[in-house]
Amino acid sequence: MSTVQEHPTPAAHPRGATAVEIVGAGRVFGGRSAPVVALEDVDLTVAAGEFVSLIGPSGCGKSTLLRLVADLDQPTSGTVRVFGGSARDARLARDYGIAFQQAGLLPWRTVRANVELPLALAGTGRASRRERADELLAMVGLTEFAEHHPDQLSGGMQQRVAIARALADSPSLLLMDEPFGALDEMTREHLQAQLLRICAETRAAVVFVTHSIPEAVFLSDRVVVMSPRPGRIRQVVDVTLDRSGAATPGSGPHDDAGDDLRTDAAFVAAVAAVRTALHGGGTGPRGVDLR
Amino acid sequence: MTRSPVAGAARQVLPPVVLLAALLGAWHGAVVLGDVPPFVLPGPAAIGDQVVTYREAISSAALVTGRNAALGLLVGSVLGVLLAVVAAAVHLLDVLAEPVVAALAVVPIVALAPVLYAMYGAGSEQARVVVAALAVFVPVYVTTLRGLRQVRPVHRDLMAALAASRVQVARTVTIPTAVPFVFTGLRMASSLAVISAIVAEYFGGPRSGIGSFITTAAAGSNYAQAWAYVLGGIAVGLTFYAVTATAEHLATRRAGP
After folding, report:
1. Considering CB atoms only, which of B158, B254, B255 is closest to A104?
2. What is the pTM of this model?
3. How many CB atoms lie within 10 A of CB A69?
4. Where is each ABC transporter domain found (chain A) (predicted)?
5. Which residues make up the CATH 3.40.50.300 domain(s) of chain A?
6. Which residue of B has its CA nearest to A169?
7. ipTM above 0.90, yes or no
8. Can you tell me the distance from the alpha carbon of B16 to that of B18, in angstroms, rounded to the nearest whole number?
9. Where do the domains of chain B lie, and which CATH numbers do they carry?
10. With bands split at pLDDT 50, 70 and 90, how would you rate the model's confidence at B120?
11. Phi/psi zone of residue A123: left (φ > 0), alpha (ψ -120 to 50 degrees), beta?
């Protein structure tokens, strides 16, 4: 089932219950003389509609792992399957939406044209493209900035545009590589709450790379804790939080950003569990945000 | 304290105008009081007088030189852009062209003018256009090729993630990234085109452009007249620069990160 004839409805997930299936994946950079093992023997399955975070210190290969899923890089061993097919087929079928650490907007296009980009490349008609862009810009609260150019927007607003762009083609898988990494704490918590709401609405599976423990816990169903050099999965922490409050649609631009949830006892316990997992294993948690 | 836009503009424009007037006054004073002979330096009044007297001859000469420079700029930049596009796509050609372009960059191109007059005939403007085109080619080629290689990694990843075809990548990312670089090359090349067109006239050819009249006037001891033609050459150069700089500004406006 590697080719797709129609848009999947997120609720049904016609291509089975598995979004991503990684088996024994490894990635070695460099030549034979000085190989650098970025990833080793990684097994991970992400169910449809599931939110999974990859967390670990700098250089643990979490971004590399995400790039393997996106087929922007290929594993040197093992397999990566996306919706039952190869990662390459999924990329060529535009099965996933992606957001990078940098917003990566095209500066010569308006905000609207940036959001429309995936649809324009897929050959969607002008009218439906515009309609979808308006819908997404409303979703991320940037309707009045549609005709602006990216350089007129703040970093947080640019990142919201990038997220809207990632969602343009209604993907049932969303890949995010530290999309809030460069933002201040307040903007960040606000965007996290928005992302939770969007995910509740679209029911897309998400693979989310971060180095912030609270961010991972706040967003995820499961937090995958990785260790550096070689990058391996050290532990998977299940998070069970009642997110019904944080993911309420229609909250304004200055909603509480899930403040109740962040002070919840289960949240604090999960943060402690992830922190313990990160610290365990001898090497210190270099580059990990312990806030 | 609020300032009106008129006052703001005056504050910007007035200082250089005052400075220019003071310099002209000092020049005039030095020439008159110091009794400087005109072959050393004619006074601004004498030059101004010549500009008025020969205004039609100067403007027609400026048009001839400007036309040569414009044609050279057009031909040279079209060739430069086309070859850069091919070199960016075909690595082998890039490797082959690199030393040739480097060699071309250090050749004093106006020195080719006498040879080209022999090729095209002494009555033809062609040689001057060729000289200008050759001078323009190198900066346009180099900056365009550079611009075509400036695509940001995040944009390249994005295009891959969106499964964009080669044509789509070129249209969506590569060309818009390169365009400001092309215009920077054009701006640098525009001055070169005018200089080359004028200097090429020093080496012979028909007596039609600014350069030929400067040499003629100087040879005939009409120093103020020679200076008047120099002013015509400056006007052509400034026009070219202003047009290409404006084009560059428009092209670069949205090219930030």
Report:
1. B158
2. 0.75
3. 27
4. 20-253
5. 18-95+174-185+203-279
6. B162
7. no
8. 5
9. 48-252 (1.10.3720.10)
10. confident
11. left
